[in-house]
Write a structure and sequence with these properties.
Blueprint (H helix, E strand, L loop, with lengths): L6 H10 L5 H17 L14 H8 L7 H16 L10 H13 L1 H16 L3 H16 L25 H4 L1 H16 L4 H6 L30 H25 L3 E10 L4 H4 L5 H16 L5 E3 L9 E3 L6 H7 L5 H5 L1 H15 L2 E11 L4 E11 L3 E7 L40 E4 L6 E8 L6 H13 L6 E7 L7 H17 L3 E6 L4 E3 L5 E2 L3 E4 L26 E9 L5 H5 L2 H19 L5
Length: about 600
């Protein structure tokens, strides 16, 4: 009885064995590093064009390496942890949320690899088509799942290339990601077999069948290669060229017109100071002083950041008695309800002294017959009529402004910087403030959005689109943000960069008043404009005052300073295909991704 395997059996076994895992770890780590470098704080945008190339080699090999998906998952999660490290700065309790979000976002990369392998090897979709389809489809899914996280899209790395990003008014920021992913795919097709061998991505046995182009084709080749790789490169080059031509034409079409003159007030208060009742008076005085410096330049509207007016508005439209208010909200002192008239009078006096309308971020508590609701709000204050409008934030930040499933799992609030009773409720819908300039008499329509709402493409489109459909289009998006949670980290830069794409998508300028920075005026082309006036609120005579929002030595935006910016907002008269028709392109990519994923589940390749 023979117990030893024959030579042919040994060779057959070796040929069927997968490659070791080292190559998968190398290419996965390289892609994760390149993606991290493409965004803030490195901001090496050109790397976005090649960041996916290393990991795409795992799609071209026909046989997965050992522990391939483990390597991709671990490297992607570690890279995402590094990218999102700013989350931990908000509060020690945010470490758990930082890790959880990083794991969630990091797992998109192995899903991407898996679906692309199905598309390439089972369906025969060219890499230059499969890769951008799946990448954009997953970006679109990420915008909605678990309330959505539309940060760090591949296309966001190109925010400086103004002509390129103009395609966002056709297909959203997803279109820019599509171009970069297609470019990476076409470059990955050019990688020769020798590189795969060097990276140990192929089975260890060196035989003619393992190399593309071998004369003996009794077994499938180890690498899936396009018959026309140069053609795929030409296709991706043509797509980029078409996008650049489109962007050049769009930027030359219709000139901007002068809109409202806006003063953006930026304090410099960390979140710990914001929640210290003893600091409320200091915060008020600083913002008032900056407002006083800004009104010398005759703004039509003065904007304060999110929740920087620390005395809440207490709304009691139901006329509930004090015992009823105590029963519904025992944690709220009754003195706050009694003092609401004084708070509204203070707001009215502020606008009157400024001689301009004001949009101010405040907390609002509104009593109804069955509950007291807490909103993160923007109020519109007329210089002679007082408070005349209010917008309540619609899109809440998970674990930052509300806790899901808390009724079933009360212990979840220990993992966040908020407790259940101090979360916020969601607003009911968009609001537009009509503001008449006291200097020109012109009426402008301002749509407020709060905090991370300017990073959510479908929400901003909904806000701008609903106004356009009513026959009264939005002139300016007004973002009120408190980025004091993140202590001057790369979050501040990336938040501003993400907002840039909302302006191009909707062809609507945006102004941002941000605690600690970066406050800015962004035009409809996605250009962050240097303001007419930059007021350095920290100038004390010991150094020359800053006169620009950028450091002249580094070119980086200033952060963590008291400042005021005054500028005339350029209105954009152009229409937007994306605003009219929405995420048709990204949704189609997601449908294609789901279809290809189902093929991978249903169709099992025979051994």
């Amino acid at each position: 009885m023979r117990t030893e395997p024959s030579v042919s059996e040994i060779i057959a076994s070796a040929r069927s064995a997968p490659a070791g895992s080292i190559g998968a770890w190398i290419v996965s780590a390289t892609t994760s590093l390149l993606l991290w470098c493409s965004f803030m704080p490195c901001d090496w945008g050109p790397l976005g064009w090649v960041a996916l190339v290393p990991v795409l080699l795992l799609i071209r090999i026909r046989r997965p390496t050992r522990r391939m998906y483990l390597a991709v998952s671990v490297c992607s999660i570690v890279g995402t942890l590094a990218t999102l490290q700013w989350m931990r700065l908000g509060d020690p309790a945010m470490y758990a949320a930082w890790i959880a979000l990083s794991v969630y976002v990091g797992l998109y990369l192995p899903v991407f690899i898996s679906v692309c392998r199905v598309a390439r090897h089972r369906i025969g979709v060219p890499l230059v088509l499969a890769v951008p389809l799946v990448w954009v489809g997953l970006e679109y899914a990420r915008a909605y799942l678990l309330t959505g996280f539309s940060w760090y899209y591949l296309g966001h790395s190109q925010y400086r290339w103004t002509e390129l990003i103009q395609v966002a008014d056709l297909v959203g920021a997803y279109g820019v990601s599509f171009l970069l992913a297609a470019a990476s795919a076409s470059l990955a097709e050019l990688v020769p077999a020798a590189v795969f061998r060097r990276l140990r991505l192929l089975p260890p046995v060196k035989d003619r069948d393992a190399v593309p182009g071998s004369q003996d084709s009794s077994e499938p080749q180890a690498i899936a290669s396009s018959s026309r790789p140069v053609l795929q490169v030409l296709i991706s080059v043509a797509l980029v060229a078409a996008a650049l031509v489109y962007g050049h034409v769009r930027r030359q079409q219709i000139p901007f017109t002068a809109g409202p003159r806006i003063a953006l007030i930026q304090g410099n208060f960390t979140t710990s100071m914001k929640h210290d009742p003893r600091e409320a008076e200091t915060m008020f005085r600083v913002h008032q002083a900056l407002t006083g410096m800004a009104v010398k330049h005759q703004p039509d509207v003065v904007i304060w950041p999110e929740t920087m007016f620390r005395w809440p508005l207490m709304q009691n439209p139901a006329g509930l008695s004090e015992p009823e208010l105590r029963r519904l909200a025992p944690h709220i002192p009754i003195e706050l309800w009694r003092g609401n008239a004084r708070v509204e009078a203070t707001l009215a006096d502020m606008a009157g002294m400024a001689g301009a309308a004001m949009v101010i971020g405040v907390d609002v508590f509104e009593a109804t017959a069955d509950a007291v609701r807490h909103y993160n709000s923007a109020v519109y204050v007329h210089p002679t009529l007082g408070v005349r409008g209010r917008y309540d934030k619609i899109h809440r930040v998970i674990f930052g402004e509300y806790i899901p499933l808390q009724d079933w799992f009360p212990w979840l609030d220990r993992l966040t910087p908020i407790s259940g009773e101090f979360g916020i409720d969601a607003g009911t819908g968009p609001v537009v403030f009509s503001c008449q300039s006291p200097h020109t008499g012109r009426v402008f329509r301002l749509a407020p959005i709060i905090c991370f709402e300017d990073t959510v493409p479908h929400l901003v489109r909904r806000i701008v689109g609903s106004a356009a459909n009513s026959g009264h289009p939005v002139d300016v998006l007004v973002n009120l943000t408190n980025d004091g949670w993140f202590h001057g980290s790369s979050e501040l830069d990336q938040h501003l960069i993400t907002a840039v794409f909302r302006c191009v998508e909707c062809r609507t300028p945006m102004v941002r008043a941000v605690n600690t920075g970066i406050s800015a005026v962004i035009d409809g082309d996605g250009v962050v404009r240097e303001p007419d006036v930059f007021i350095d609120g920290d100038a004390d005579g010991g150094r020359p005052p800053r006169t620009s929002m950028r450091d002249p030595q580094t070119g980086r935006w200033y952060k963590q300073l008291n400042a005021a910016l005054v500028d005339t907002v350029p209105l954009d008269p152009r229409e937007s295909f994306y605003l009219r028709y929405g995420d048709w392109f990204a949704a189609a990519c997601l449908l294609a991704t789901i279809a290809m994923g189902l093929v991978g589940v249903v169709w099992k390749r025979p051994n």
